[in-house]
Give the backbone structure.
Amino acid sequence: MAINEMRAIATFAKAVELGSLRRAAAAQGVSPQAASQALAQLEAHLGVRLLHRTTRAIALTDEGRQFLEATQPAIAALDRALERVRSAKDEIAGPLRIVGPRSVFVPVLWPLIDEFCALHPGVQPDVQLDDSIGDWVRDRVDVGFRFGESAEEGVIARRLFPLQLIVCATPDYLARHGAPQTIDELALHPCCVFRHPVTGRLMPWKLMADGQRVQRDMAPALATNDAELEVQAVLTGRVIGLLTGISAAEPIRAGRLVPLLTAHVDAHLSVHLYYGSRSAVPRRVRAFIDLALARLHNDTRYVLSAQELAMAEARGRKQAARAAA
């Protein structure tokens, strides 16, 4: 049924309800002429007269009464459906589809979801973590997180914080093996290399050198496609690793890890929040977006300043030198 026919039926029903075509027009926000034309078009389409009309009153014809009785249940059902959608849009409850990267991101995402669920217990998060980039529409995504910018059109991206890549080792490792002084000296140390969970490729180490981003293919003393295992391998002092600020910031601040070659830290990627529309967003989605921006935009928990990095490196090297002496 074309939209003009639906509007004409609604005008007809509203005119009967209010006893006036003029009042029906006012209730629907159209002119009396438009309402009269819509009704005339409906009668012409059906080939029957639905209302007896005078300048003062209207009355149902027999055909009009039968038509009203037949259409009222459908009109009432449509009104209920519209009201349910409006209510759902304004209610902070219901399913919330969230996607994000699997690697290293759980420590960021879970506290956010936990806080959101405490604030809005009527929401049911459906969280899919995957390092591949899926189809936003096909996967019915409400909110997403990614490292780097989105390539999809029509998707809104909000930058949260930079994703630092930091060469790290434990104080114990440095006391036993010493610390690399240059990027080239990394080849003399056992290194952990991350294997991409989707492609299976060993990921090159990305560093900064002379203001340029460089990639180094490291010979792995240990390779893994699990970010948590990589962090644990570095924390045990078995290998040197290139860790993200998400994984490394807290143990560096606590002195359990030492950042190395901090002048070469790369932060060319950032963590971004994605969503599909600035308007007509359900309240549960908007509430989650607002909380994510409030908690994660420019979040320093996962980012170390250049001064913090330099001081932590100098302190760690001195402690390692004393321990080795």
